[in-house]
């Protein structure tokens, strides 16, 4: 294991063995994932980084049991991904907030708890707790459309965290935001991660985002989707905006960038 | 340090949005009344335009001897008072007593008859809408029904209504039911289809992110149906209901033509058509009232829709 955070539990939170995923795309088979082996320790913050078409989103969905692998085994906390999903161990956030217009902010966050059958009072209390966590107290009764994109994304994160999942799977959740909001939410995400101890798998195509957030960056190469390199990021937490300007940050970024460039085809660089 | 910064950043949009929402709330009543005024102006404009076209056509036809000006091409419809009574003659007819020996005006009589029709259409719409929604859910949730049943629903709507209506009336009669029930069934028969089709589209139009999210939290099918698919389909449902509203009025009117009762605006139209040569304006008056009734019906649906969806569009 290459995780720098102290690991007391020897068992990985996520374990993938020989995972392959092929899609039948009309004209022929597309190898989205090819023979992926990956262990992720409990409490780690792992980013999946790579050019489009490298299968990083597919890999995230395989871990989350939204996509079944063609071959291979996915284990989450010692059981199958499907069992973990059915036990509601996942919280997911996507590139778009995906909030429901017909519900208030509070009722959006309550939705996963409603599925679980949590009583109304407890739901409400938990939703308020989550809103406090993402610093949106006071917006309980607003509608999603009344909030900015960044605020909506925070609500989506709160919704994903509502039933205190063991795993948070995030598919480019900050990709659609402007730089200011994005860096602000990166700090927020680290704060939430550190206060909840949740294992996070985070898909991104931004090198600096991956370096700033992660304990480890997994660089993937396209066609077929493979793990090209795994780079531990040894920068100490808490990481702040000053961290971004340190030499160590620059070096970590350079290492990831080098790994990324070695998997990019020349056409894509231009 | 970083914490204080992020707090400050969090507060800025907070205040901005809160004040915007407050402003929007103040602005709303005025905006609504302006909208009402604008749509009222459009309605008046269209009515004035329609009257001007009708009377303009008549005046031109009278001047040219029913040919297109400077040609010998005849006009499609004669401009005579027999084929096209003057607007004021039609309105005057509405003010006259409906029958010899009564003081009730034709307008009141037609409105009375229209209320009978609207009641039949209303029951038909409610029944049709319920059947339509249930069918849409069944078609969406039970795979083999989608392929097996949908074509038959389409075929059901291609059966000519003029052939079907008398059959339903005869069946209802032989079962000892009052004729308004037959009329209601015919209205429901026309109303369910647009509801089914639009509702089905809506149920399938779920946002892929909502779908993935519901899967990720292992939501049962019924939960996703009730709390995600239904709300997603609500705007489509209202589109279907508006089409169903007009269809149910048409169904009720056509049903009345086949039914044995003397009630309903459909019957009144038939009577006016029978006595057309005596009083052509009566038929136009009846059609006018019938179409106004349809408009009112659709407007009711539109108002319900605006209330049901008011919180989504802000």
UniProtKB/TrEMBL annotation, chain A:
Keyword flag DNA damage:
no
Gene Ontology molecular function, alphabetical: ATP binding; ATP hydrolysis activity
Q: Domain (ABC transporter): give its ranges.
A: 14-247
Transmembrane portions of the chain: none
Does the record's keyword annotation contain Transcription?
Answer: no
UniProt xrefs under Pfam families: ABC_tran
Per UniProt, the keywords (alphabetical) are: ATP-binding, Nucleotide-binding, Transport
Question: Cross-referenced InterPro entries, in alphabetical order?
Answer: AAA+_ATPase (IPR003593), ABC_transporter-like_ATP-bd (IPR003439), ABC_transporter-like_CS (IPR017871), ABC_transporter_ATP-bind (IPR050166), P-loop_NTPase (IPR027417)
- Superkingdom, taxonomy of origin: Bacteria
Name the SMART domains for this protein.
AAA
Which PANTHER family would you find in this protein's record? ALIPHATIC SULFONATES IMPORT ATP-BINDING PROTEIN SSUB, TAURINE IMPORT ATP-BINDING PROTEIN-RELATED
- This protein is called what? ABC transporter ATP-binding protein
UniProtKB/TrEMBL annotation, chain B:
Gene Ontology cellular-component terms listed = plasma membrane
Q: InterPro entries from the xrefs?
A: MetI-like, MetI-like_sf
Question: Would you indicate the residue range of the signal peptide?
Answer: none
Alphabetized, the UniProt keywords read: Cell membrane, Membrane, Transmembrane, Transmembrane helix, Transport
Keyword Membrane carried by entry:
yes
Where's it mainly located? membrane
**Database matches in PROSITE patterns:** ABC_TM1 (PS50928)
Its localization reads: Cell membrane
Q: Name one GO biological process term.
A: transmembrane transport
Concerning SUPFAM superfamilies, the annotation shows: MetI-like
Q: How does it sit in the membrane?
A: Multi-pass membrane protein
Any matching Pfam family: BPD_transp_1
Q: Which residues form the ABC transmembrane type-1 domain?
A: 114-305
- The residues that cross the membrane are 36-54, 121-139, 151-173, 179-201, 222-241, 283-309
Family statement drawn from the similarity comment of this UniProt entry: Belongs to the binding-protein-dependent transport system permease family.
Q: What is this protein called?
A: ABC transporter permease subunit
């Amino acid at each position: 294991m290459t995780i720098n955070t102290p690991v007391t539990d020897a068992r990985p939170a996520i374990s993938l063995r020989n995972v392959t995923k092929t899609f039948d795309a009309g004209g022929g088979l597309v190898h989205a994932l090819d023979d992926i082996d990956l262990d992720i320790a409990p409490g780690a913050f792992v980013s999946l980084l790579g050019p489009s078409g490298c299968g990083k989103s597919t890999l995230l969905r395989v871990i989350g049991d939204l996509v079944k692998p063609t071959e291979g085994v996915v284990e989450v906390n010692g059981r199958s991904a499907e069992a973990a999903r059915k036990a509601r161990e996942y919280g997911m956030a996507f590139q778009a907030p995906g909030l429901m217009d017909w519900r208030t902010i509070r009722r959006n966050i309550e939705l996963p708890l409603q599925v679980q059958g949590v009583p109304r009072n407890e739901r409400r209390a938990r939703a308020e707790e989550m809103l406090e966590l993402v610093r949106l107290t006071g917006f309980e009764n607003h509608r999603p459309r009344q909030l900015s994109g960044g605020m909506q994304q925070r609500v989506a994160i709160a919704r994903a965290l509502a039933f205190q999942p063991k795993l948070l799977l995030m598919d480019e959740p900050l990709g659609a935001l402007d730089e200011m909001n994005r860096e602000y939410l990166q700090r927020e995400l680290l704060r939430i991660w550190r206060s909840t101890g949740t294992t996070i798998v985070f898909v991104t195509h931004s090198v600096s985002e991956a370096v700033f957030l992660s304990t480890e960056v997994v660089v993937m190469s396209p066609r077929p989707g493979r793990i090209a390199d795994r780079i531990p990021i040894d920068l100490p937490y808490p990481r702040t905006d000053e961290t971004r300007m340190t030499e160590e940050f620059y070096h970590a970024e350079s290492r990831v960038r080098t790994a990324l460039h070695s998997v990019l085809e020349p056409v894509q660089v231009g | 340090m970083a914490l204080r910064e992020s707090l400050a950043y969090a507060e800025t949009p907070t205040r901005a949005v809160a004040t915007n929402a407050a402003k929007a709330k103040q602005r709303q009543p005025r905006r609504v009344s302006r909208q009402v005024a604008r749509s009222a102006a459009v309605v008046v404009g269209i009515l004035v335009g329609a009257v001007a076209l009708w009377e303009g056509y008549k005046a031109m036809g009278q001047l040219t001897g029913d040919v297109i000006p400077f040609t010998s091409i005849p006009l499609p419809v004669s401009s005579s008072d027999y084929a096209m009574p003057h607007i004021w003659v039609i309105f005057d007819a509405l003010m006259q007593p409906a029958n010899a020996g009564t003081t009730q005006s034709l307008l009141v009589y037609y409105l009375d008859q229209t209320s009978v029709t609207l009641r039949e259409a209303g029951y038909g719409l409610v029944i049709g809408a319920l059947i339509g929604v249930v069918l849409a859910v069944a078609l969406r949730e039970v795979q083999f029904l989608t392929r097996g049943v949908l074509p038959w629903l389409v075929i059901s709507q291609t059966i000519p209504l003029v052939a079907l209506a008398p059959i339903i009336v005869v069946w209802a009669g032989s079962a000892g039911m009052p004729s308004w029930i037959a009329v209601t069934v015919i209205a429901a028969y026309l109303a369910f289809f647009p509801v089914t089709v639009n509702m089905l589209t809506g149920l399938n139009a779920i946002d892929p992110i909502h779908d993935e999210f519901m899967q990720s939290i292992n939501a049962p099918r019924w939960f996703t149906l009730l709390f995600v698919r239904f709300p997603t389909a609500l705007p489509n449902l209202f589109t279907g209901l508006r089409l169903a509203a007009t269809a149910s009025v048409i169904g009720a009117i056509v049903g009345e033509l086949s039914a044995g009762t003397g009630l309903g605006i459909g019957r009144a139209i038939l009577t006016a058509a029978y006595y057309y040569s005596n009083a052509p304006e009566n038929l136009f008056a009846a059609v006018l009232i019938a179409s106004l009734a349809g408009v009112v019906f659709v407007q009711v649906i539109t108002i319900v829709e605006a209330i049901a969806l008011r919180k989504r569009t802000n």
